Amino acid sequence: MAFIRTILPVICVALFVVVSGAAPPPRPDTGIGVLLVGAIPGEPSPPQLILYGEPGIGRVAEKSAASLPHLAIPHKIPSGEFPLVVTARKGGWLKVIYDDAGRAAWLKPRRAWPFVSWDELLKGREARLLRGLKKPLYLLWGSGGDTVPDLEPLTPERSFRIISVDGDRIQVLLDLAVVGWLRWRDEDGRLLIALE
């Protein structure tokens, strides 16, 4: 009887995990763009980043660029470079996300580390919508705010080319014939698309 009392909670927890499944990882936050942090000749690689609560004030941490969460985006990123999400700019300072909880701190980027806005990053690229989104996010919209007539909702398997970026929306081209609008990030600033 003591054995059953000991093992029963373990079995219940195991069944709950199997039945409910693990929660999917959160979609990445987008911020205002991406900072491509790379090695500096004569300095340690990956670079050490000094992070501040405000630009130059209130040192928060010193971390390796490799330990910060970075976006997995195919943007011709050379090996050894780390794409960090930038949430704000102030003067020559950039605010980057430095942990998996989404906390951000300021750093002074090196001249060799380019900042790429989402406009630059998305325009002209092939992309697909992510799986598991709400149904309205798979609809292609015309410029007048109506859905594109006679077009089925998109699927995560269907790719499109991004023509332009307007805030949270992108103008896309499907099958070299159909033009419409989609959201590329949600209200919380999380990605809705995967770049190819």
What Rg, in angstroms, do the CA atoms define? 21 Å
The chain-level mean pLDDT equals: 82
Q: Between the first and last Cα atoms, what is the distance in angstroms?
A: 57 Å
Q: Can you summarize the main beta sheet?
A: 5 strands, antiparallel
Please tally the helical runs, counting DSSP H or I stretches of 4 or more residues.
Answer: 2
Report the oligomer.
single chain
Assign a percent range to the helix content.
Answer: 10-25%
Strand order of the largest sheet: 6-5-4-1-7
Name the structural class. mainly beta
Say how many strands there are: 12
As residue ranges, the low-confidence spans are 1-20
Strand content: 25-35%
Reading the helices and strands in chain order gives HEEEEEEEHEEEEE
Shape: elongated
Describe the protein:
With 196 residues, this protein is mainly beta. 12% of the residues lie in helices and 35% in strands. The chain contains two helices and twelve strands.
Give a short summary of the structure.
The chain is mainly beta and 196 residues long. It is 12% helix and 35% strand.
